[in-house]
Amino acid sequence: MNNTVGKKSSVVVPVVLALMAGAIGGYLIGHFIGGAASPGTGIKLKLHKHPLPVVVPVATAMLRQGVIAQRINAYGVVIAKPSAIRNISVAFESQVSQILVTAGQRVHVHEPLLQLTASPDALLQLQQAQSAASALAKDLQQVQEQYQLRLATQGQLLLAKQQYAQAKLKLSALVSRGIGKVITIKADHNGIVALTPVQVGQIAPPGAPLVEIVSSRDILVRLGVEPEDSIQLHQGEAVQLFQVSRRSSAALNGHIALITQSVDPATRLVNVFVTPASGSDLLLGQYIRGVITLASQRGLLAPRQAVLPQHGQNILYTVKDGVAVRHVVHVGLHNSAEYEVAGVGLAAGDPVVIVGNSELADGMQVSVGANR
Fold first, then answer.
1. SS3 for 312?
2. For the chain, domain boundaries
3. CB of 54 within 8 A of CB of 364?
4. Which of 98, 176, 190, 214 might form a disulfide with 80, Cβ 3.0–4.6 angstroms?
5. First-to-last CA distance in the chain?
6. What is the spatial distance between Cα 307 and Cα 331, in angstroms, rounded to a whole number?
7. CATH architecture of 82-214
């Protein structure tokens, strides 16, 4: 009997202890986690959630006070002013015997450029004029003798004299032009040879250009500008010119002389002609980069990465005490690196978010990494 009771006691005690442990565990779960009823106890468990705060890693840069300039870059070439191009030609058909200069060569006044002779047709005209003049001279002499013998009238004498004078004038004009001689064409002013459009042996018609000379002081820079930028330009505005072939070239000053009102069909750009300052060492055909300042102003400047478009507004975030602060800003002048901004609560030296700002909302906690 006692053995039976002892055995029952040894079984009941572990069961009671297990029930007590379950009740205590259920209470603890219900107190700290809770939400559902504890099995077998009827006690409703209440859950307590404690979410971890979201911290966004960002990088910042400082707002600064400074001067911002909005500029455009345009590329082009050095050309001669149309009014400065001097075409050298002769008034008769000629044949080129020797070319003494080349394009791009600097020449001085009276310097030989090329040598010409009359073409075969021009020489034929000279021979015909000489023959006509000689024949008419004989005719005039004969008419004068007949007039003295009263065998010719005064009208016939006057006609003979007129015909001879015309033939003599034509012959004199051909001779004065140099037909029948070797002609040396010389420069009539200092300048640069822009073009020699003829070759040795070529027959050039009367008045055809043989050499083009440009005054070294009469040059322009032709720049190609996007049509939407050209409407912001004005005649007389300053332009900085840089020689593309020289990486470290100093800026040359110039000003806009002409803004064309059409788009070049070859480049789809608007041609803007710039007059460089006197004394520039630019060469014809040289490639040039022009920098034109559209506007310049002093203000509060923010990196371009800091400004975001959002719902028709421009915003940026500053960081204060580890928290992101959203600002609506007005954007003014801008260039490839910065915006001019104005907004409530902004000042020079404020850290603005430039990396990670697209993930932010006002009041979010941030972790600032590298500053710029």
1. coil
2. 1-50, 58-67+297-371, 72-81+215-296, 82-214
3. yes
4. 214
5. 89
6. 9
7. Beta Barrel (2.40)
Task: Please spell the DSSP secondary structure of 216-275, one letter per residue.
Answer: TTSEEEEEEE-HHHHTT--TT-EEEEEETT-TTPPPEEEEEEEEEEEE-TTTSSEEEEEE
Is the separation of the CB atoms in 194 and 213 below 8 Å?
A: yes
Q: Does the domain spanning 72-81+215-296 belong to CATH 3.40.630.30?
A: no
**Residue 278: partners with Cβ closer than 8 Å, 6 or more residues away:** 217
pLDDT of residue 280: 75
Cβ 316 vs Cβ 304: under 8 Å: no
The DSSP secondary-structure symbol of 370 reads E
Q: Radius of gyration of the chain from Cα atoms?
A: 48
Q: Per the structure block, which two tokens stand in for 306?
A: 């800091």
Q: Are 72-81+215-296 and 82-214 in the same CATH fold?
A: no
User: Which pLDDT belongs to residue 53?
Assistant: 75
- Cα separation of 66 and 228, whole Å? 27
Q: What is the pLDDT of residue 348?
A: 95
Residues β-bridged to residue 146: none
d(CA 300, CA 346): 9
pLDDT surpassing 90 at residue 313: yes
Give which of 83, 40, 37 is closest to 275, Cα–Cα. 83
Q: What percent of the chain has pLDDT over 90?
A: 63
Question: What is the C-alpha to C-alpha distance for residues 229 and 189, in angstroms, rounded to an integer?
Answer: 39
Q: Note the pLDDT of residue 82.
A: 82
33 three-state secondary structure: coil
Q: pLDDT, tens digit, for every residue of 121-158?
A: 999 999 999 999 999 999 999 999 998 998 889 999 99
* CA-based torsion, 170, 171, 176, 178: positive or negative: positive
Return the sign of the alpha-carbon dihedral for residues 141, 146, 149, 153.
Answer: negative
- Other Cβ atoms less than 10 A from the Cβ of 352: the count is 25
**pLDDT score, position 370:** 62
pLDDT tens, position by position, 24-35: 555 544 544 444
Cβ–Cβ under 8 Å, residues 101 and 107: yes
58-67+297-371 — its CATH code? Answer: 2.40.420.20
Q: Is the pLDDT of residue 86 over 50?
A: yes
